[in-house]
Inverse folding.
C-alpha cells in the first residue's frame, strides 16, 4: 500500500493515532495467520502480541522502498515457527480449533477436515498455503516473507495441495467421482 | 503426456485464480482418461477447492486492538531507548492489559525441571570450585614455605596486563621452564628485585637506574617510558614472588 510508508513515518514520529491505525490495519492479517498456524487462541494471541511488539521495536529498520506486508508477515511467520518449535518439545492436545468449530457448527464439516489436513503439512508448506489461500498474498509476497525463491513457493504450494487432496480422499470426504460425502 | 509432465501443467493450474473455469490441455485430458491415479487426484483437487472456500469462510476469532496496543506501550516503556509515542499511555484502554503468556502444565513441568537441573549443576560446580584452591595460591604457598630474602613483599595479584601474561606463563609451564625463561633475561640489566619493585611501586622509574643497574645496562629504563618501566618492574617483582628461589641453572 502506498500509504504504508506515510503511516510508518507517523508512527515513528510518535503519533499514537498512527500506531493504533497501524495495529487495526494489520491486526486481522497477523492474527489469522497465527490462528491458522497455531490453532490455539491463547497461543495465537501471544504470538500476535509478540509480532506487533517486534514490529514496532524494529519499525525504523523497515525500508519504505519495500512492501510492508511481507516484512510484517515474515516477523509473524518467524514467531509462529518459534512457537511451533517449542511445542514440538511438549506434547500438545489436538488444540482448540475443533472445539471452536464445533461450538459454531456442530456438524463435522469440510473446513474442519481441511484444517486437520493443514495441521499435518510441513511447516513451510503450511505457511505458504495459509498465506496464499487465506491471506491472499501473491507468490512474490510469500517469497519475500519466507525468504525463499518464488519457484520454491510454487512447489511448496503444489505439494501442499497434493497432500491435502490425498488427505481429503483418504478421510472419505469425497468419493471417487469427486462428490462430497454427506457426513453426519 | 505422462504423470510428471502433467504435474508441470498442474502447477500452473493450481496458481491460476480462475482455475475452476480453466480448461486442461487436450494432452492433459487424454492423460486423465488413461491414468486412474491422476484422475483420482483431480477429483481430490476439485474437492480441495470447495474445502478451501469453506475454510476461508470459517469465522476466525479476533484479537483485541487494545490488548496489542497495551503490549506495544508496555514494551516501549521497558525499552531504555528506541521509538516513543507521545501520550501513548493515555491511549490505552483502562481495561486493556498485556496478557501474561500462558504456560501449559507440561511447559511448566519442563521449566521447573530445567530450573532444578540448572540449580543442581551450578551448586555442584560452585562446591567444586570452592573446595579447590586456586592454582596460584598453591604455588605461592609452596614458595612461602621456603626462606626468601630477595623477594619483596608484593601484591599476589597481577596488576598489569604484562604481569597477567607472565603469571599465566608461570602457571602453565613447569618450574624448570620458568627458571630457564628467567635465566634468559640475564642479558637484561641486572636489577635487584627489591629495588625495582620498590621503585616501580612508587612510580620513580629513574631510581631504577640510579645505583641499581650494572655497567652492562647502558640501556636506560626511563627511556622506555614510565608506564613500561613500571610494568617491567612489577613483572620482575612478581616473578620473584612466584618462582622458587632455586638458583637458575648454569647455562
Amino acid at each position: 500500500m502506498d500509504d504504508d510508508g506515510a503511516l510508518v513515518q507517523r508512527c515513528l514520529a510518535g503519533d499514537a493515532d498512527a500506531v493504533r491505525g497501524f495495529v487495526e490495519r494489520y491486526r486481522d492479517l497477523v492474527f489469522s495467520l497465527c490462528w491458522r498456524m497455531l490453532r490455539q487462541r491463547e497461543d495465537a494471541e501471544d504470538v500476535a502480541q509478540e509480532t506487533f511488539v517486534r514490529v514496532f521495536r524494529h519499525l525504523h529498520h523497515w525500508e519504505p522502498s519495500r512492501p510492508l506486508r511481507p516484512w510484517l508477515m515474515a516477523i509473524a511467520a518467524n514467531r509462529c515457527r518459534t512457537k511451533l518449535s517449542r511445542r514440538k518439545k511438549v506434547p500438545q492436545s489436538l488444540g482448540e480449533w475443533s472445539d471452536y468449530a464445533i461450538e459454531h457448527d456442530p456438524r463435522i464439516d469440510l473446513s474442519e477436515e481441511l484444517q486437520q489436513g493443514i495441521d499435518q503439512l510441513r511447516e513451510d508448506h503450511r505457511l505458504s498455503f495459509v498465506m496464499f489461500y487465506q491471506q491472499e498474498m501473491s507468490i512474490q509476497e510469500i517469497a519475500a516473507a519466507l525468504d525463499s525463491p518464488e519457484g520454491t513457493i510454487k512447489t511448496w504450494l503444489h505439494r501442499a495441495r497434493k497432500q491435502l487432496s490425498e488427505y481429503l480422499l483418504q478421510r472419505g470426504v469425497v468419493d471417487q467421482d469427486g462428490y462430497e460425502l454427506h457426513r453426519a | 503426456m505422462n504423470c510428471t509432465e502433467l504435474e508441470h501443467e498442474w502447477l500452473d493450474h493450481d496458481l491460476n485464480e480462475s482455475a475452476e473455469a480453466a480448461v486442461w490441455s487436450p494432452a492433459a485430458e487424454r492423460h486423465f482418461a488413461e491414468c486412474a491415479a491422476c484422475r483420482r487426484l483431480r477429483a481430490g483437487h476439485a474437492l480441495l477447492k470447495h474445502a478451501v472456500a469453506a475454510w476461508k469462510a470459517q469465522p476466525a476469532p479476533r484479537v483485541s486492538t487494545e490488548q496489542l496496543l497495551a503490549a506495544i506501550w508496555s514494551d516501549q516503556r521497558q525499552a531504555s531507548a528506541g521509538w516513543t509515542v507521545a501520550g501513548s499511555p493515555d491511549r490505552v484502554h483502562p481495561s486493556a492489559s498485556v496478557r501474561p503468556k500462558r504456560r501449559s502444565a507440561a511447559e511448566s513441568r519442563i521449566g521447573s525441571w530445567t530450573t532444578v537441573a540448572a540449580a543442581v549443576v551450578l551448586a555442584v560446580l560452585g562446591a567444586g570450585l570452592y573446595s579447590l584452591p586456586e592454582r596460584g595460591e598453591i604455588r605461592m604457598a609452596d614458595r612461602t614455605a621456603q626462606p626468601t630474602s630477595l623477594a619483596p613483599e608484593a601484591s599476589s595479584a597481577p596488576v598489569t596486563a604484562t604481569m597477567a601474561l607472565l603469571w599465566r606463563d608461570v602457571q602453565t609451564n613447569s618450574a624448570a621452564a620458568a627458571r630457564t625463561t628467567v635465566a634468559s633475561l640475564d642479558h637484561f640489566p641486572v636489577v635487584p628485585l627489591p629495588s625495582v619493585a620498590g621503585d616501580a611501586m612508587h612510580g620513580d622509574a629513574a631510581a631504577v637506574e640510579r645505583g641499581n643497574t650494572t655497567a652492562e645496562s647502558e640501556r636506560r629504563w626511563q627511556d622506555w617510558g614510565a608506564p613500561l618501566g613500571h610494568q617491567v618492574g612489577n613483572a620482575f617483582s612478581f616473578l620473584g614472588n612466584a618462582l622458587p628461589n632455586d638458583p637458575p641453572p648454569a647455562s
